[in-house]
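## retry 2 of 3
previous attempt timed out at serialization; input unchanged, resubmitting
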Amino acid sequence: MKYLLNSHLELNRIKIFASILKINSSDLNNHFKGWSIAQHLYHCWLVEELTENYIRKKILNPKSINNVSVITYIRSFLLQLFFKLGYKVKAPKPTAIFPHTIDINQLNLDWENSRKSLDNLIIILHEMKLEKKGFFNHPAIGRLNLWLVLNFLEFHLIHHIKQIDKLITKIN
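## retry succeeded, writing output
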């Protein structure tokens, strides 16, 4: 990986999987009072996977891609502030459908492969000179460019890592 190898996004993924190594599968898949640790991780992977798929589809028609407005940066900041203040929103349905049991080792491998694919997409975006264009439409923020997408994915993962850390504390 050229772009994501030492990124905070990738380092956080590696760190969270390392922190759950010694937790057994039934605890990882236990729902407690909401999502399990495995479901949080699956959700984060799925968000990244669906985001990449959307972008790959969108860049097939680069003429339909618009510029990013200043308001989008403000919305991105406000959404992050909203979550930092403790507010929650319901995950979009496609990102909240989980297998009955999630194999953490397989998920880690799938995510690693997804990250390599996302890294290749970043290279394509740079080659097409689209990295500053609004190729991804976030439902709350609006059209996002590459920086905003990666910023959102990192913030989103950190948000769920905090929830996972609370679940790990309950297990211990």
